[in-house]
Amino acid sequence: MGLKLLRERYRVDLIELQAACEANYARLMRLLPGMREASGARRVALSQGERQLGVMALEVVENCPYTSTVKVRQEQSLPWLPVPQLEVRVYHDARMAEVTGAQSARRFRGIYPYPNAAMHQPDEKTQLNVFLGEWLSHCLACGHETEPQV
Fold first, then answer.
1. Which of 125, 98, 97, 100 is nearest to 110 (CA)?
2. Helices in 4-142 by DSSP H: which ranges?
3. Residue 114 maps to a domain
4. Domain range holding 33?
């Protein structure tokens, strides 16, 4: 008699996802405080001692009364590593920021069957929003302006 292991079906943890999106909104507003009033951009250099690790570019690509769209990307990367790039929809009325695009993928579902043709993880949407939070937190903790302020 063979033992068949059943994997429990993934369920979206809405509280965790909403908390990540709310925290990402607060982080983005610290990095781009004038985002609601005007389109803007900012480059944040990341370094460790004298060694430059890269530059993170944030650019508001669309601004509407209640939402903004921000492109977040790393400018410098290793030759063997694709350049990370995320598209983030910022909901000012709800005070949330959600990843809506990554590389060439757009509009993520809450749950994916696994395996699937696109090789998305069952919790791909949550993972991307948590990754954005870690990326923004690192910029706030270790980043500095690329050009001196005048």
1. 125
2. 14-31, 124-142
3. no
4. 18-107+119-144
**What distance in Å separates the CA atoms of residue 88 and residue 1, rounded to the nearest whole number?**
50
Total structural domains within the chain? 1
At residue 4, the pLDDT reads 57
Distance CA 70, CA 88 (A): 5
Report the DSSP pairing between strands 96-102 and 105-106: antiparallel
Residue showing tokens 């990540």 = 20
The pLDDT of residue 150 is above 50: no
Tokens of 41: 């951009």
In a domain, 62, yes or no: yes
Tell me if 1 is assigned to some domain.
no
Residue 129 lies in a domain: yes
The answer to whether 9 and 113 are in contact (CB under 8 A) is no
Residue found under tokens 């951009």: 41
Q: The pTM is what?
A: 0.81
Closest CA to 23 of 135, 148, 145: 135
Q: What residues form DSSP beta bridges with 99?
A: 88
User: How do residues 72-119 score in pLDDT, each as one tens digit?
Assistant: 998 876 677 777 889 999 999 999 999 998 876 667 666 666 776 766
What are the strands of the beta sheet with 51-63, ordered from one edge?
A: 105-106, 96-102, 85-91, 67-74, 51-63, 41-48, 143-145
